[in-house]
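Standup notes
- DV: blocked on the single-chain target, sequence here:
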Amino acid sequence: MKPSIFNTFLPLSGGDYLLFNTLSGTIVTVDEEMKSILENEAGESGNIDENSLENLRELGVVTGEDTDERAFFEYKFQEKKFSTRDVQVSVLLTYACNLSCSYCYEGRGEVISKSMDKETSEKVIKCIMNTVDDSGCRNLGLTLYGGEPLLNYRQGLEILEKLSLYCKERDVRFKAALISNGTLIDRRIAGLFSPYLNAVQLTLDGPRWYHDKKRVRKDLTGTYDRIMESVSILKESGIPVFLRVQISKDNLGLLEELFEELKSRGFGSDPLIKPYVFPLMNIGEAGCLPGSECIPDNDYAEILPEVWEKAAGYGLSLVSKPVPTYIQPFCSFFNNYSYIIDPYGDIYKCVSLVGKKEHKAAYIDDGGRIAGQTYEMIEFMSRNPARIEKCRDCPYLPTCSGGCAFKAYSGNESFQSGDCSLHKSLEERKILAYLKYSQPGFPGDGDE
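- DV (later): unblocked, structure below
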C-alpha cells in the first residue's frame, strides 16, 4: 500500500488535522502520527494495523503500490465528459435587456439585441430532439436565459412545451430553469411557466439602497422591490428560486445589511429559496472595466470565506462540500452533449464567449442538425487537465479539473492550459467552512 497522491491535510485546533482526499471525497480527522505516516512516500504502512489499513484503502486514502491515480482520474473525467446519460442545453432567447447594469457582462443588450424568431426556435427544438435521440440520454436539462429571456417569453414557452411533451413520450427526465433579472415576472408569467420550471435564478447586488444604484432599468430606476415581489410570486407558484448575491469590491462592507434583510424574510430556512454568493468577475470586453468593482482573481480565497462567515451568522448557509468534478462538474458545458444556442442558431461551448463570432463552435442547419463544427469546438472538448503540466501534479486536480476553461484561455490564449483562480486557493477554506457550518461542534482550523 502507498498513500494517495490526492491527500491534503488541513491543520485543526488541538493539533489534529483534517484529511481531505480530493479524488474520493473522503473527509477524516487524523493525528500528527497518522499524518506523518501518510505523508511518507514510502508509505510505512507497517505502522498501521491491518483493519485500519483496509479502512483507509476503502476510503481512498491509501492505494495499491501499482495503482495509477492520475490514470483513474483521467478515465473518470473522460467518462463523464463523453457520457450520453445527461444532455444540458442553454438557449439564449434574446440578447436584448430591459436593464442597464453598470458592470453588465453582455453589453446591456445594446451591443447585440437580436431575439430568437419562430423559425429559429423551431430549428432549436428539432436540434435538441435530435440530440436526445442520438445520445439516448436519460436526462435533459434546459436553461433559458438572455439578455432578459422574458422579453421573448413566447418562444421560450413554446420550446418548453414541446420539449417537455417530447421527453414525456420517450421516458426522458426533463428539468428546466430560467435565468432572469426578475423585473418581468408576474402571476400570469409564473402561471404560464410553472408547469415546466424546476428553478429560477434571480440576482441581488446588495441591500436595497445599493442594489438600486447598480441593477437599474434603462430609465435608471431601481429594481430591488420588484425582484423581491418576483421571489414571492415564484414561491406562491411552487417554483424554487436560486437567489444569486453578487459580490463586488465596493459592496463587501454592505452584505450584512442584505443578509439581515434575507433573514427577516425567512430565506435562510425556506426550502424554496436558496441564496448563494458569487464574485463579480472580469470576463472580457463585455465585463467589468479596469478599476471597476470586479473582484480580482487572487482575492477569492480571502473574500469568499469572510462572506460565508458573515452569512452563517444570519442563518444563511452559502457553502457546499467540494466534490470531484467527475461526480459534479462545475462547468455545465464540458460534456460532449451540452452546449449553448444563441438567437441566431449559433452554438457555443462557453457562456463567457457567447456572441463572439470568432468563438462560435458550430451552428444549427435547416434540418435541426449541428453543423459547421469549428476548431473552437475541438479544442474545448479535447481539454484534458490530467495532461496539463501545471495541473497534473496538483492534489486538487480532481476537484478543479484545470479550473475555468475560459479563464485559462484568457490568460494563455489556449484552452489547453490551467487556471487556479476559483479553486486551488479556495478549496481548503471551502472544506473547513462547510464542516464548520454543517456540523455543530466542529473544532475549526488551526488559526482559531
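- Follow-up: The domain at 74-448 is CATH 3.20.20.70 (TIM Barrel).
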